[in-house]
Amino acid sequence: MTGAIFDVDGTLLDSMPIWEDVSVRYLKSLGVEAESNLSQKLERMSVEEGAAYIKENYHLRESEEEIAAATLKIVEDFYYNEAPLKPGVREYLAKLKKEKIPMVIATSSVRLHVEAALRRLGVLSCFDKIFTCSEVGEGKTRPLIYEKAGEYIGGDFRDIYVFEDAIHALETAKQAGFYTVAVYDPSAEKDWERLQEEADVSVTDMRQLMAQ
In DSSP terms, which residues pair with 5 in a beta bridge? Predict the structure, then answer.
């Protein structure tokens, strides 16, 4: 290994639940009980589409813009105050830092949220640079964010490890020529078997990599 590229949500942070229940939290703050399958209904919607659905189906007086802003504020507060590291992450980052392995982040999340969470958890200094999809201009179905991160680290992409919990992201990194590590997250349970098949290595806890 000559370098490591880490995803954040579901890989470093146990943060996927906030995306699954942010609308439930929002409705609860208004004293409104959400339907039991609301998270599943909103899963593939954008924030704006979700706000429109909530306004129409729960007959809220708030505008769609106000609903979207309020849900994003709940997400922001979660990163700033609650989001925890996943098991084994702190130990594994410390190991790579001790070995002077360059580490960078490639994330679809908002830079300020990621920085706030990692700073609060005491691991932000482990990373040399943060790359975000919005800043590079493409999502993780395209290789640009991984290529930018790999070029920053330097050397052969095959010697740079990419850590991901989402199948589409891992497949993109693999096709770009990186060594891939699948990290288990309950939010991607349905894809876990496929992730294990596609990845060079798969782990349920990063401490499983400590001996490598």
Answer: 104, 162
Selection from 139, 159, 141, 140 nearest residue 150 by Cα: 159
Q: What is the DSSP letter of 108?
A: S
Query: Does the pLDDT at position 78 exceed 80?
Result: yes
Whole-structure pTM value: 0.86
DSSP assignment of 142-177 equals SSHHHHHHHHHH-S-GGGEEEEESSHHHHHHHHHTT
Mean pLDDT of 84-90: 96
Reported as type and span, the H/E element at residue 69 is helix 64-81
Residue with tokens 């680290």: 153
Question: Tokens at residue 156, please?
Answer: 């052969």
CA distances from 5 to 26, 54, 66, 150 (A): 33, 36, 36, 8
pLDDT digits (tens, 9 = 90+) for 90-118: 999 999 999 999 999 999 888 999 999 99
Instruction: Say whether pLDDT at 53 is over 80.
Output: yes
Report the distance separating Cα 37 and Cα 207, nearest Å: 34
Rounded to an integer, the average pLDDT of 6-17 is 94
CA 118, 210, 2, 200: dihedral to nearest 10 degrees?
-100
